[in-house]
Design a protein that fits this description.
The chain is an alpha/beta fold. The chain has 2 domains: 108 residues, Cobalt-precorrin-4 Transmethylase, domain 1; 117 residues, 2-Layer Sandwich (Methyltransferase, Cobalt-precorrin-4 Transmethylase, Domain 2). The strands form 2 sheets. The protein has a 5-stranded parallel β-sheet with strand order 3-2-4-1-5, sandwiched between helices. It has a 5-stranded mixed β-sheet with strand order 6-7-10-8-9, with helices on both faces. Strand 6, helix 5 and strand 7 form a beta-alpha-beta unit. The longest helix has 13 residues. It is globular. The chain binds S-adenosyl-L-homocysteine (SAH). S-adenosyl-L-homocysteine binds next to helix 4 and strand 10.
Length: 255
């Protein structure tokens, strides 16, 4: 069986308990070496075969999976963050389906959650933003025209950009083209939850310059929006005058 596992954003103790158990039991681990913390590999049992997929093609990854399966062994395919975001899991699963090899998927903590935690930020602030756009700048990998950054920016909601920290000039230009003002709060979070995590608070107008000054070109997320720094409304959920499924409103007039 093949187990796809989300490794979490970096800190080794941010893998899930289920993911850690699967790692400990695996006969083979194929990990995304560019971003998965190698400290996680210390959980591997003795004799576990370990492959770094950063240097492998899809075909080579599938060859290892097929060989392990034929020998009745369990393989963990360890992806960074949560595998459902920019994880290239679908193409692996489709090929496994064709080969009749069973698999399952264990979620992980995505780096966009790690980045919010690094900033003590809440993406969905009442009265400010109730949506999060997770996207990327078009680069060597294209983005559908309808999802261009300038179009996405028109929503003026909380945004998180993956895979875009090497294109800061273009990102900044697209965000401004989409209608963000230069003083909209922004942040660059480099290696969220790793020991060498770096948090750079800036604005849409200073994004490219601040990134350049700090030497950021990879392994970073770009966060944009007023959720980073603005007034907001109290949540209804914890408002004394608001009745929920679990709590009756306290009578009005009581302060
Ligand atoms: N599936 C992953 C994303 C993989 S795409 C997830 O859920 O996080 C790789 C991109 O993710 C990187 O280019 C970078 O933009 C971002 N990324 C991954 N880990 C990161 C981290 N710890 N800190 C900041 N950005 C990270």
């Amino acid at each position: 069986m093949i187990h796809f596992v989300g490794a979490g954003p970096g800190a080794p103790d941010l893998i899930t308990l289920r993911g850690a158990n699967l790692l400990r039991q695996a006969d083979c681990i194929i990990y995304a070496g560019s971003l998965v913390n190698p400290a996680l590999l210390e959980m591997a049992k003795e004799g576990c075969e370990i492959h770094n997929s950063a240097t492998m093609t899809l075909e080579e990854v599938l060859d290892v999976m097929r060989r392990m399966e034929a020998a009745g062994k369990d393989t963990v395919r360890l992806h960074t963050g949560d595998a459902s975001l920019f994880g290239a899991i679908r193409e692996q699963m489709d090929e496994l389906d064709k080969m009749g090899i069973a698999y399952d998927d264990t979620p992980g903590v995505s780096s966009f959650c790690g980045a919010a935690a690094a900033l003590n930020a809440e993406y969905t602030l009442p009265g400010v933003s109730q949506s999060v756009i997770i996207t990327r700048m078009a680069g060597r990998t294209p983005v559908p025209e309808k999802e261009s950054l300038a179009l996405m920016a028109q929503h003026q909601t909380s945004m998180v950009l993956f895979l875009s920290s090497g294109l800061l000039e273009q990102v900044q230009a697209e965000l401004l083209k989409g209608g963000y003002s230069t003083d909209t709060p922004a942040a660059i979070v480099y290696k969220a939850t790793w020991e060498d995590e770096k948090v750079i608070r800036c604005t849409v107008g200073t994004l490219a310059q601040r990134g350049k000054e700090e030497g950021i070109c990879k392994t970073a997320l770009l966060l944009i929006g007023n959720f980073l720094d603005s007034a907001y409304e109290r949540s209804r959920l914890y408002d004394p005058t608001f009745t929920t499924e679990f709590r009756q409103a306290q009578s009005a007039g009581k302060e």
